[in-house]
Write a structure and sequence with these properties.
Number of helices: 19
Shape: globular
Radius of gyration: 23 Å
Distance between the termini: 14 Å
Number of strands: 19
Helix content: 40-55%
Bound molecules: 6-O-phosphono-alpha-D-glucopyranose
Length: 491
């Protein structure tokens, strides 16, 4: 009897991610309120609707055990969210430390620091950060195992939780576990500098299915396993002692319908009218990024500065709206970046601005979904100049909102999206300021015919490669892989 009949895959989908898709805060009356969080992972998973889903993650806040915590947990539970509580000392070492100062950096090709980092006289060593990473992964494991029922499928997300597949398999050998990485996986030459490279790989390999955005990232992962662990890489994945972890590429997408519908609402239409009025007579370029060094914001600003310098005829005729959503503000590198960006913006506005024209409109905050849609819809060019980026869904969102205007996408060749939207975009090397300045000129002067043709290609891709198809493909493959693994276990 085929195993899928013995054990129907009718269980729930348990998504485990570091962060819940909502941020919790209190209103003036002291009542808890929930707000959608920023970032590609949230944006993609918001577009997945077909499953009965439980989401486990850190609620972005620590609340002491007691009534207040219970009230928040109950509110989250009603939405299908289960919180993992991480007290501030642990969180700092795990999240600011190992996740965002070690793995995040390394996976985006930024070499390791000397040994952890120094902040206000306090030193976090890499060893301490690693200890906290293990402990935090255990905490997530406890919450998953507490609610797990046979037949459920566990889908672990991202670099924060690379040890979780092994924690779960050790507790329940037949548990169905997939792991997906939302960042790049770097070349094995970079990855192998990680002091705990073996422990991390071995733990992740316990997943039945391991997914990446692009084929290149999957290949880098497989070669790290062969070179560092001496395992055998096959076209299917990695083989370890007769068991196979399947490794493959599953490019993510968005829910384009959500944007199309938002554009129809009165609220967005009103925002659009206001913006068009404000920008009348000028071209507008848009950047929307988390304030993160991998997004290449300073490089983008320098390219715009160069463009204005070389093209006096465009001064007063084009402006850049840069939305920089604050992110990981306790990590020293992110604090330095913020000052650097402010300094460059000030310099450019001081040099090229007039009493009636400000070349860069810079905002340090997250916009509401409706404000963002309006901005996507009215701008002429999107500038996405990431130095490295797993996929970059802002590029997809921009395309989804540009059905009328057919705006131009200037896209870094180091974003995963370059592999899917490359043909319809102007691809740039963000480190080459001249190249980006030239791309700005091309984008601003492109004929309408060419813009429409490029947009058509990009739009076709965004409309057909959605978050839903991404999740469906991953989940059905996880089911198949697990059935095969289970058969092997039985024989
Ligand atoms: C990236 C990561 C996500 C993360 C998001 C926002 O997209 O892949 O896992 O949630 O950034 O970062 P934050 O640290 O604020 O969760």
């Amino acid at each position: 009897v085929p195993l899928d009949r013995v054990e129907p895959s009718g269980g729930r989908l348990i998504v485990v991610a570091n962060r819940l898709p909502v941020t919790c805060s209190k209103d003036a009356a002291g009542k808890w309120k929930l707000q959608i969080s920023a970032g590609g992972l949230v944006s993609a998973l918001m577009g997945v609707n077909n499953y009965s889903t439980l989401w486990i993650g850190w609620p972005g806040i620590y609340v002491k055990p007691g009534r207040d915590r219970d009230a928040l947990a109950a509110m989250l539970k009603r939405e299908g969210y289960l919180p993992v509580w991480l007290e501030s000392g642990l969180l700092d070492l795990y999240y600011n430390g190992f996740c965002n100062s070690v793995l995040w950096q390394l996976f985006h090709y930024v070499p390791l620091q000397l040994d952890g980092w120094q902040r206000l006289g306090e030193h976090q060593t890499l060893q301490m950060q690693w200890g906290a990473y293990q402990q935090a992964n255990d905490r997530f494991g406890e919450v998953v195992l507490h609610c797990y029922q046979p037949g459920d499928m566990v889908w672990v997300q991202d670099y924060h939780l690379m040890l979780l597949p092994s924690i779960l398999k050790n507790a329940v050998p037949r548990i169905k576990v997939g792991w997906f990485l939302h960042t790049p996986f770097p070349s094995s030459e970079i990855y192998r500098t990680l002091p705990v490279r073996e422990e991390v790989l071995r733990a992740t390999l316990r997943a039945d299915l391991i997914g990446f955005h692009t084929y290149d990232y999957a290949r880098h992962f497989i070669s790290s396993c062969t070179r560092i662990l001496g395992l055998e890489g096959t076209p299917e994945g990695v083989e370890d002692n007769g068991s196979v972890a399947r490794v493959a590429a599953f490019p993510i997408g968005i829910d384009p319908e959500r944007f199309a519908q938002a554009l129809e609402t009165q609220e967005v239409q009103m925002n659009i009218a206001k913006l068009l009025n404000r920008y009348a007579g000028r071209k507008v370029m848009l950047g929307v990024d988390r304030l993160d060094m991998i997004k290449g914001i300073p490089q983008k600003l320098l390219a715009f500065e160069k463009f204005l310098h070389e093209h006096p005829e465009w001064r007063d005729k084009v402006l850049l709206v840069q939305i920089a959503v604050p992110s990981r503000t306790d990590v020293p590198e992110y604090q330095k970046l913020r000052s650097m960006v402010h300094e460059i913006v000030g310099r450019i506005n001081g040099a090229f601005g007039t009493l009636t024209y400000v070349p860069i409109h810079h905002l340090d905050r997250q916009l509401s979904f409706h404000e963002l849609c309006a901005l996507y819809a009215v701008t002429d060019v999107a500038l996405i100049t990431s130095l490295r980026d797993g996929m970059n869904l802002v590029s997809y969102e921009y395309v989804a909102c540009q059905a009328d205007n057919a705006g131009v996408l200037v896209l870094s060749e180091f974003a995963g999206a370059a592999q899917s939207l490359g043909a319809g975009s102007i691809l740039v090397n963000p480190w080459n300021i001249n190249d980006v300045a030239a791309a700005i000129e091309d984008a601003l002067t492109m004929s309408e015919e060419e813009r429409r043709e490029r947009h058509r290609q990009n739009f076709m891709h965004v409309a057909t490669h959605t978050a839903q198809t991404w999740a469906d493909t991953f989940i059905s493959e996880l089911n198949d892989t697990h059935i095969e693994a289970d058969l092997r276990l039985r024989h």
